[in-house]
Amino acid sequence: MIVDTILYFIYSPKIIRNEAQKCVEVGPAFSFLECSIIQIYQFSDSRNLCDPFTNRPRKRRRLYCKKLKLLPDNYLEQYCADLEVINIMAPIRPVEELASCPQSQAVEENDVGDYLVSRTKKVRNSDYMLFSSDALTHISCDSKASEKYTWLGERLRLTFKMMRSDSRLIRTMCHSHGFMQCSNKNPTVNIIWMGAPVKSIKMRELMPWQRLNQFPRSTEITKKDRLYENIERSKSIFGEAFDFIPEFYVTPRENKNMELAFERVTREIKEAGGELCFPGEFIVKPTNSRQGKGIFFANSVSFSMVDIPAEGPLLVSRYLKDPYLVNNHKFDLRIYVAVTSFYPLVCYVYSEGLARLASQPYDTSASSSESNEFVHLTNYSINKNSTSFVRNESMSSEDLGHKWTLGALLRYVENEGKDAKLLMLRIEDLIVKSLLSIQNSVATASRTTLRFASTNFELFGFDVLVDQALKPWLLEVNLSPSLACDAPLDSLLKTRLIADLLNLACIPLLDKKIIDSVTPALKKSMNSAQDTESSDPDEVELDPQCAKTLKRRPVGLKRSVLNKKIVSGAASIIPNNEKKFEQIVRKVELEEGRRGDFIRVFPRNGSFGMYSPVMEDLGSDDYDERLFDEVILKKNTKNSSGHVSPSTSSASSSTSSSMHIEDLSDLFHDVMMQCNKYPTLADVPIEIREIISPWYEEASEYTKKITQEGETYACKLPVIRSTARLRTKSCAEFYEVRKVQMAKKKEAEAAAAKENEPAVPHSIAAKRV
Ligand SMILES: Nc1ncnc2c1ncn2[C@@H]1O[C@H](COP(=O)(O)OP(=O)(O)OP(=O)(O)O)[C@@H](O)[C@H]1O
Predict the structure, then answer these.
(1) InterPro entries given for it (predicted)?
(2) What is the CA(377)–ligand 1 centre distance, in A?
(3) I need a labelling partner for 463 at 20 to 30 A (CA). Which of 49, 146, 669, 752 fits?
């Protein structure tokens, strides 16, 4: 019998010592067993074999599984459907034979930067946690249905921590999957969710199985002034391809230029016989604030330096006064973008988004300054205070009130006879270019900060304004876009978004015990690599305590084999650049099956040829081109058995047109920027149409409805039942202390309020009595 299966052995030396043999032959999702070492072997032939650790007849293994009650009845169908073969009864070969088995060499150590997991050539979905928004439906009540989602996280004792963020959605999602919240100090936590920029130095400490929702220096795009300056810099290098932000000035450093700009604008308008726009030709925003706070308008006529405070940087940008209107209301779009790698760039746009409408009709001649903000600003946080704001409380309507889904907005645009999918391609284009404009900074910071390829991911909220020519303009990029769920549409969209995002992040399924036992050795190995960059990885020493634990030799396993595995395992944990690149390639392939409703916009068919002329030179690694070759070209070659279609070839390959690839790229960027010239796909030159047609087809994902007729959706996040609100001891203590502090604060406030209360006049007091 040929067993073409990769078998995972999880065993606990402690248990073996106690003679309670618990050696189980399992798939990766079984790794919740209490164990401290995993050994992985690959077999091709399994005749006449016996268990290498226990020397017991193989039928016992099934017994163990049953005895331990580890498997729900329908476990295999539910969780392992995508595994190639899980054969619990497959016999195995003695370990001595195994060592000489050529197939065992095919098993790679420390693959994908995920130490102890996914060591096979083929990384599989089931090595990582699968998140589902359905889990939230059950977390408020004790039921078998909720266990289906929580049991794996609970058994593996997976943890998360939230720092400078109190997002209820993240907490609910993690608890719904059995994650335990731990205190900020916990060094071995699985997911770290940050609500503010993290210091680069902290990122150096990330372990390969940990995931952090941030890249170093991503503030280059999330701070308003830095974003505009980075795009402006790219524009000065690559030209009009980056013409998607309004003219801008940053005070106080550009005060002089700003004054000149105001004068020029006034002069131009007067010469053309026009009138200055109401409320202003320029909009002024504090660079560090959010939710529309501190925004005001400045017109060249009324403008004086008195209006603009000198302290603190302000972004003064040209007011886009011809927005596309929906039922006569201005709107902006919130587009969710996930980045899983900056160099090479790998980014995804979520197919569901939001359109936020101003609560009062658009009018540039209005003179009531009071309602200005409800006409010209589209922030939800501002408009919800307007008396005319209509909340979308509907369970299934996507275009009701002043918050719509992206799909509803695009369907509206289509009904007006416009090309909504081409609009989405243009939005994707500005997203890719914005990320490329900071690629150099992030890549440089990542080289010195990130040790592993898969530890970081980030979700950005892109705010986009669309003008009457259907040209998208980038207003700003949010570091941690709001995940508040205060309407059914919000809950529906954002829970799916976060589930898909965490799936993209690929959280490895590793038992806390394994993590705890290997952490000291890895830390040491990481520190010594830091001290001596050129040190020979094979010489890395193990922490004596950890080595002792790891070297407890299980029955039947040769000491030499075990030692070799431990040392090489710990030593090769920090990948070199080439290894990192290989890990990224595998991760991108893995993400393909886990992206949910995310659309990968870079790299994709034909993308490298179009964007390479507007990409900065980041050295000789050429990761972007190589990733494109690995992930796109090779796949296409496989699919078309040797034939690569012209539209999918890389920059160096020729296309079906006679145009040179650089001219094609120029034309592509012209199409993306010139909306009046190319309003629909039919107007786009055939050479470019050939390239973007598959992207255009994919863009139909954006126009789909997210709700279904007759379905009802939860209007709020569920309350997590207390038994599922798992917290580590230190975290629980932290919350206890906080609770007491809050109560004290409230008491103090109440006392202060009482003290400040005006004394009740004697006559009134008497009346009251
Ligand atoms: N250049 C512009 N032209 C026209 N309208 C603009 C411009 N810049 C901003 N706005 C309007 O002002 C609103 C707020 O701008 P912006 O999103 O940059 O500020 P914010 O305070 O950071 O908001 P957020 O809460 O989204 O972080 C936008 O939603 C948009 O409607």
Answers:
(1) TTL/TTLL_fam (IPR004344)
(2) 6
(3) 669
